[in-house]
């Protein structure tokens, strides 16, 4: 017999919840004891208390111990703890260990210690001689503690005096006074004094005072005045002589092949541009390293330059470890004022060449299938720390849903050369104040895309540009040359019929050159881990064909007829038309963490995307690869990828597989998502997505209709007085399995607002369009890798 009785699982869950929820926790308190339920803090004063809420928070922070957690006055964790009392294994022990919490008793509260800590915090904020009292409030088997702090007026800074002795050290400290954090009239605050000491030390470190430390700074505070204090900044009377002396660099040694297991080297150093350099000519030319070093012989020691050298050398991507050691110079002459330091920069290399293969899986609601990526990397291809990266890719994806039976294959190879400097002859630009290595990049590639039942396309690209960062949060990229050539090398009869019916689509797919240039600026606060509200912004502009058009028009070149349908004249290059357009892309994200805990994943994530492409002169439509699609697992999740627009355009039932023309020149998208930690490595999410795409020029072949089934004459074109009515909206919920280096995302989304009407066009045959789904049929399930934004 398997069991003696059984009953529905729902009854079991309900009974368990009632047992837990019905328990306040007091039944588990030992006789004669009181359950500690928490404390309150109240500030009293005859005068106004500046920053009262912040000061109250500081006082609350010293209260210990913390009471048991409760939900609406109930303490289910005490119930789970009780289930494990006296048990070393079994379900009760597991629940107690996983979810239980031992009762916190009043006897554990040391009110005198808490009062002393509160007085200390009040003193630190300028409230001298405060009184703090406590009162225990009991009720049945529980007890709480109320703390009351009585304070007078806070002491404020009346005068600030910096050192006035005639020494190099005192003069250096006086020179930092314009940036002082101490302000006349501000309340006395210990943390401000600590920060000021750190600020002075940082300034001295950049003026040669290598051995100075913040502890050598003293603040003498005269508080005998009526709620006012005079502050005297001084140096301790006895500090090591070396701490009071600035230093210059005597000898700078660069070892580019230091091994952690070795303490000696057989390679003899050479002198290069004043550096004592241990060469590794098989890997580097000396100039490649010295360009990233900002420590110069006979220059004043500056910690800023030391940190910058570390950052630049590590960003080369050729070193596993870099450290800098400083030692007093033994034989160097020592004047009465300045000392001398020898510097040793030790660099441990990573292997020069590497080969990596990675198997990926693309999962979306359009195509799914594997992809193989093979990467070859040479970290000093030209012996100047240039990184050569060659990627070969191959993927085979199978269509899903309306694209079932369609196979998409893609093969490609691309190469990129990253040069760790800005190549801008005749100028030598080093960005001397940046911690990040600027780069010049060159790239070239070829890709073959094949879609069974449709087409085969060749894509060639060639370009070069620059990327640089001035801060950890700011990055810029300028690509003056971004050439691309697209060619339809094979078209099926089915796809040719689509092209014949869609002249706009035909012109976007035609053979053409893209003579592009681009600039992108990115501001990203996500690198600031402890910041509660993080902003991400990316703005870019792409231009194509303008210079070529100007030159040909000034030279009087003749335009050539292009296009089999709706032919038009355009300038050509090597017999092929080139695209001319301006495209602007803007993306703004905001991540607000709802918890004060910096490790919490509970946050609101919002995103706004705006994309506008304006074809003109030589083009009346953007190239297909530059057009915008919307919908899918990383966009509006309640609709298929590229399943919306342009405008109110709706594909017929027979065209459901021909999704290629649901793209536009203008894109507007907004997303709001709340993310919540559920369990270790598991997060939940609720989201709302909205947006659509539109055309700059109306497309007569894509007829759009109003709510009564009549043609509205817009044909997918963007209009300011109608676009808000054409926004699609979807909402849903999801689960994320987040193991930090890998995220699997499962989303279920439901369309709330369709951009098009379900009324059949006037005079259209029955069954031309699908009927509006009902019930739960339109729920869209998405499986994806990574977060949507």
Automatic annotation (TrEMBL):
<protein>
    <submittedName>
        <fullName>BamA/TamA family outer membrane protein</fullName>
    </submittedName>
</protein>
<dbReference type="InterPro" id="IPR000184">
    <property type="entry name" value="Bac_surfAg_D15"/>
</dbReference>
<dbReference type="InterPro" id="IPR039910">
    <property type="entry name" value="D15-like"/>
</dbReference>
<dbReference type="Pfam" id="PF01103">
    <property type="entry name" value="Omp85"/>
</dbReference>
<keyword id="KW-0812">Transmembrane</keyword>
<feature type="domain" description="Bacterial surface antigen (D15)">
    <location>
        <begin position="485"/>
        <end position="752"/>
    </location>
</feature>
<keyword id="KW-0732">Signal</keyword>
<keyword id="KW-0998">Cell outer membrane</keyword>
<keyword id="KW-0472">Membrane</keyword>
């Amino acid at each position: 017999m398997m069991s003696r009785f059984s009953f529905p699982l729902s009854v079991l869950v309900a009974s368990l919840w009632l047992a837990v929820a019905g328990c306040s926790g007091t039944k588990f308190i030992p006789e004669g004891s009181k359950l500690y339920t928490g404390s309150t803090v109240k500030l009293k004063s005859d005068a106004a208390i500046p920053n009262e809420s912040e000061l109250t928070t500081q006082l609350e922070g010293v209260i210990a111990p913390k009471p048991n957690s409760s939900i609406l006055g109930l303490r289910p964790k005490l119930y789970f703890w009780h289930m494990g009392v006296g048990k070393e294994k079994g379900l009760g022990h597991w629940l107690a260990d996983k979810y239980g919490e031992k009762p916190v008793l009043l006897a554990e509260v040391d009110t005198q210690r808490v009062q002393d800590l509160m007085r200390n915090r009040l003193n630190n904020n300028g409230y001298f001689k405060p009184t703090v009292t406590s009162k225990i409030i009991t009720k049945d088997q529980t007890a709480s503690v109320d703390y009351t702090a009585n304070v007078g007026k806070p002491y404020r800074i009346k005068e600030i005096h910096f050192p006035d002795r005639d020494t190099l050290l005192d003069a250096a400290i006086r020179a930092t006074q314009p940036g002082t954090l101490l302000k006349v009239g501000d309340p006395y605050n210990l943390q401000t004094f600590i920060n000021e000491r750190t600020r002075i030390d940082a300034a001295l470190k950049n003026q040669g005072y290598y051995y100075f430390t913040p502890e050598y700074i003293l603040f003498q505070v005269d508080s005998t005045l009526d709620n006012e204090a005079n502050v005297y900044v001084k140096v301790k009377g006895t500090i090591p002589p070396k701490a009071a002396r600035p230093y210059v660099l005597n000898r700078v040694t660069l070892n580019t092949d230091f091994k952690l297991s070795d303490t000696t080297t057989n390679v003899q150093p050479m002198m290069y541009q004043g550096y004592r350099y241990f060469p590794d000519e098989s890997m580097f030319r000396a100039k490649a390293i010295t360009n990233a070093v900002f420590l110069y012989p006979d220059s004043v020691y500056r910690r800023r330059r030391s940190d910058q050298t570390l950052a630049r050398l590590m960003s080369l991507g050729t070193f596993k470890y870099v450290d800098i050691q400083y030692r007093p110079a033994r034989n160097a002459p020592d004047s009465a004022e300045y000392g001398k330091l020898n510097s040793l920069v030790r660099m441990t290399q990573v292997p020069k060449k590497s080969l990596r293969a990675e198997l990926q899986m693309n999962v979306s609601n359009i195509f799914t299938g594997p992809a193989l990526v093979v990467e070859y990397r040479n970290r000093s291809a030209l012996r100047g720390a240039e990184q050569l990266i060659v990627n070969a890719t191959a993927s085979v994806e199978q269509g899903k849903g309306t694209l079932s039976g369609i196979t998409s294959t893609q093969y490609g190879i691309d190469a990129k050369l990253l040069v760790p400097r800005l190549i801008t002859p005749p100028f030598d630009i080093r960005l001397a104040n940046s911690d990040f290595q600027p780069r010049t990049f060159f790239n070239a590639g070829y890709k073959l895309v094949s879609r069974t039942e449709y087409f085969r396309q060749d894509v060639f690209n060639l370009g070069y540009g620059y990327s640089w960062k001035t801060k950890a949060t700011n990055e810029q990229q300028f690509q003056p040359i971004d050439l691309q050539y697209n060619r339809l090398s094979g078209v099926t009869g089915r796809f040719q019929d689509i092209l014949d019916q869609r002249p706009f689509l035909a012109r976007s797919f035609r053979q053409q050159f893209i003579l592009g240039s681009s600039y992108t600026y990115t501001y990203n606060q996500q690198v600031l881990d402890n910041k509660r509200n993080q902003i991400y912004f990316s703005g870019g502009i792409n231009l194509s064909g303008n210079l070529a058009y100007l030159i040909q028009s000034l030279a009087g070149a003749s335009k050539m007829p292009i296009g089999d349908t709706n032919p038009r004249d355009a300038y050509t290059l090597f017999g092929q038309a080139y695209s001319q357009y301006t495209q602007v892309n803007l993306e703004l994200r905001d991540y607000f963490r709802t918890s004060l805990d910096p490790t919490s994943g509970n946050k609101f994530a919002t995103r706004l995307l705006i994309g506008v492409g304006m074809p003109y002169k030589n083009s009346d439509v953007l190239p297909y690869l530059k057009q915008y699609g919307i919908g899918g697992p990383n966009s509006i999740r309640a609709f298929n990828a590229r399943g919306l627009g342009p405008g109110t355009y709706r594909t017929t039932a027979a065209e459901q597989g021909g999704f290629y023309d649901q793209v536009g020149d203008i894109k507007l998208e907004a997303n709001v998502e709340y993310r919540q930690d559920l369990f270790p490595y598991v997060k939940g999410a609720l989201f709302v997505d909205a947006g659509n795409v539109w055309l700059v020029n109306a497309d007569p072949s894509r007829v759009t209709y109003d709510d009564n089934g009549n043609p509205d004459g817009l044909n997918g074109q963007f209009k300011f007085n109608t676009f808000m009515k054409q926004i699609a909206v979807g909402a849903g919920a999801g689960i994320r399995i987040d193991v930090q280096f890998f995220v699997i995302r499962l989303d279920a989304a439901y369309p709330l607002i369709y951009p098009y009407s379900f009324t059949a066009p006037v005079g259209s045959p029955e069954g031309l369009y699908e009927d509006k789904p009902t019930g739960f049929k339109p729920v869209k399930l998405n499986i994806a890798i990574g977060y949507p934004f």
